[in-house]
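call fold(seq) -> tokens
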Amino acid sequence: MSRAELQPALEEQALTPWEIAAPLVRAAQAGDVIALNDLMELLLPYVGRLCRPIALAESADAIQEALIVVFRGIGGLKDPSALYGWVRTITVREAVRVARRASRETPVPDVGDQPVLADSELATDVHDVLGRLSSEHRAILVLRELEGLSEQAAGEVLGLARGTVKSRLSRARSSFRTAWTA
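ret:
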């Protein structure tokens, strides 16, 4: 079922993202290239929303890397209803990896060089503060504060023990507060 065919059903029944994605996942796993393309288009905004605050100026690379991993691994996804959790795990790991690589290569860019999330002064200030944090701190803040994951779930995504998540989250929040008031 293509995205165009799903649109009337979506509007009529107010389907959740999981209900929209499940038939696309099954079709893509069966070799339907159009369904795979539609699935990637469906996932792109979600992947971008996760990558931007973690990878900052390198977010385009992180988005591309995450989508490549999803593309290559979609055949191995056993439960289509687990798609978004699976994609979240891949995306955050790729965003952190790309951000780490970029931080070793170049200093953190100026806010003016980065895409602006909104036209508000607050969004620019938040973006500036996030740019001063490490990729690990940005990742934990995105998972807990934007995605609303529990400490345990965030730990599973990042491959960290719960205690490590708690301490990293505490340090990330402290670093954010310090940078915010500076």
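The chain is about 75% helix and 0% strand.
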